[in-house]
Description:
Layout: H1 2-25, E1 33-36, H2 38-41, H3 47-59, H4 62-65, E2 69-71, E3 77-80, E4 86-88, H5 96-106, E5 110-116, H6 132-142, E6 146-150, H7 158-174, E7 180-184, E8 202-204, H8 224-231, E9 243-245, H9 270-282, E10 287-289, H10 298-304, H11 307-313, E11 322-326, E12 330-336, E13 342-348, E14 354-359, E15 369-373, E16 378-379, E17 385-390, E18 395-402
Parallel strand pairs: 1-2, 1-10, 2-5, 5-6, 6-7, 7-8, 8-9
Antiparallel strand pairs: 3-4, 11-12, 12-13, 13-18, 14-17, 15-16, 15-18
Bound molecules: alpha-D-galactopyranose (GLA).
Alpha-D-galactopyranose (GLA) binds near residues 73, 74 and 122.
Amino acid sequence: MKQFIILTGLVLMSAIMQSQVKLRKELSPLPPMGWMTWNLYGERIDETLIRKVADAMESTGMLAAGYRYLIIDDGWQGGRDKKNNIIADPVKFPSGIKALADYVHAKGLKLGLYSDAAPLTCAGYTASLNFEEQDAKTFASWGIDYLKYDYCNAPEDSNTAKQRYTTMANALTRSGRDIIFGICEWGGRKPWFWASNAGGSLWRTTGDIRDKWKAKPGTDGEGIMDIVAVNGSLDAYAGRGRWNDPDMLVIGLYGAKGPSADLGGIGCNDTEYQSQMSLWSMMAAPLIATNDITAMNETTRRILLNPEVIAINQDAAAIQAKRIRSDAQWEIFLKPLDGGDYALAVLNVADTEQAYKFSTEDIGLSTGFVIRDCWEHRITGKKHAWSGKIAAHETKLFRLIKK
Ligand code: GLA
């Protein structure tokens, strides 16, 4: 009898956990979009900056375009109080995080925060191990909508990672507030196999992005292409509510001093930044900008706010593009869209301009499509074929519209 009760209890508990995971998957049915402090500001953050960014997200049209999450990365913490409640740095955030959340919520934005599955974060601040329930409650009481949960200072093995992430995800669920959970263990333990079941809506697949196109052979610091090399083949694991996260957008940073400028992060040109936008959209990646949006130039604005490209990222079919060609000349991705359209990205990997041509038949589709260039904002002709020149490192992004 006793065994029966224990068994029934276990079955019930596992059913509850399953349904919690299912609910968590509905928290971010489409890839989250927003802005994060880390790549440019690192630990140099405070409430004045966050308010300025919130204002700019509204006035630049970022919010209207879908960038809703304003995420404070590492460096906000001020330790714990006498009751072990985590507190914000009183110098950087004298009004407290709750006041900031109220400020951004009033604009229709959401607020994100950062912690780590160990006693200390990557930058050495107070983190959440063994305080998961208490911290989740605190975050919920402040009005936090998104938690990025890092893995510095934690053991290497996968089992511990799975367990620590699940513990925090369950604590977030029990807090009673809908808080998206971003898993950040850099891909080392292949989180695409387990992170969704551990309660994550997204999971980083690589190390930290640097503001560069590609690492020179034998050097550290991953650029856009190094990250595409990994994330581009993980399409099978992404879908509604579960996203591969190839790290933040470096668009518009131009090598500015900050964490993404080290290890050779000298900046990219605008063609390369535009390629990042195309590729991240095709990979159904979270679109998390990091540039100074209070002082964006026109090109950066045009890249980040292109509605046709954002529509491909946010498409309701929620499918990550499949890489259909990858060599020294071209990277080609195909993404099925809701309603029978497709998106096709053609990236010229070479360092010189190349000519390219394709027809929809070449990529296994029928002839019943017209082709729209999503950066030129025009239908390229009546035909189901395209030919033209593509600049070095440029990505042509087409919407194949079903006739
Ligand atoms: C790690 C993460 C980064 C950032 C820093 C903060 O390196 O991967 O994205 O959050 O920690 O210290």
